[in-house]
Amino acid sequence: MADFLDTTEIKEALQNNNQALAVDKIKKLLEMAANTPLNIGITGESGSGKSSFVNAFRGVDHRDDQAAPTGVVETTTEVRAYPHPSYPNVTLWDLPGIGTTRFPADQYLKHVGFERFDFFIIISDTRFRENDVKLAKEIQKMGKKFYFVRSKVDNDLQNAQRSQRNFDAEQTLALIRENCKEGLLKEGVQAPQVFLLSNFELRHHDFHRLHATLERELPEHKRDALLSAMPNMSLEIIEKKKEAFKSKIRYYAFVSAEFAAVPLPGLSVVVDVALIVGVVQQYKTGFALDGPSLQRLADSTGVPLKDLTSVLRSPLSLNTINNINPKTSTSVSSCCWLNGSRGRLEIYSIIWNLGSIDSLL
């Protein structure tokens, strides 16, 4: 996550033997990384599944108090911000469908506050319509990125399975994807990027492709925020988060080493405990193992919270995370657990090496 951080000033401070300044720069650098804003505009026609996508991406059940309201009729009549429950610097904006406003596409963007968004996701549950195309062209003119999401493909697969003698799920999805692309190309949208999703089964279909595309095309300083907020639905995402957390350890270790050099009895221990508690809390939140995240998982899956927490032991004790109980492994895996021989989170077994100045240069 921290690859984009500019460490030039830290290196200069260390080379000038000004370690106090280096510590101050490190703190500011880590703060900046944790607070980089990411604003995602979600739009589309009424009933296309915008609000459901906002909830699914944030890991919030539609019955939750923090959920965007969903329904069979248009429930979004004004611009509404939905911050990520664990990372409030990441906000999904549920925008009213362009067909439900009195504004044409160019004025619609001004109406919703175009400038604030880092990119747009345009959602449709069937084919992309005239208003979607007009909006995409206006976004393109203004130099921002947009991505087409074809939602509710689980319904399409069910219908195809009922009606086709030789049903093939992958072939059906490929046909839907190509049909969407062809329609958009005919309407003049250049190089349309289309992703097939089910808001109720987000880990399936094209969500991983969408994440990879966003990660590739976002400015480097925004990728950290995106990865933090991504649902922990695959080993690939979990591994990326783990490596991102590991990349920051050297900075925390250096801060710890500096306080160890201060000749005040007990100060080093107090600082180290505070650092470790804070960093472990970051890990728990990042992997959705914190209390609020586990409660949301329990509410959405129907698995009692005590069953989820029974496989978790305190990372600050000598205990480790237990192996997964087969009875709860399906639910817990969506929270970030690693199955089988990797049923323990390596991140909690990281050794706090104080390291050397060379590791920062």
Automatic annotation (TrEMBL):
Pfam families, A to Z: IIGP (PF05049)
A GO term for molecular function: hydrolase activity
Keyword Nucleotide-binding annotated: yes
GO cellular component, one term: membrane
Residue ranges of every copy of the IRG-type G domain listed in the record: 36-217
InterPro entries associated with the record: G_IRG_dom (IPR030385), Immunity-related_GTPase-like (IPR007743), IRG (IPR051515), P-loop_NTPase (IPR027417)
Keywords, in A-Z order: GTP-binding, Hydrolase, Nucleotide-binding
Keyword Hydrolase attached: yes
Family assignment from sequence similarity: Belongs to the TRAFAC class dynamin-like GTPase superfamily. IRG family.
Protein name, per record: Interferon-inducible GTPase 5-like
Organism placement in taxonomy: Eukaryota, Metazoa, Chordata, Craniata, Vertebrata
Name of the gene: IRGC
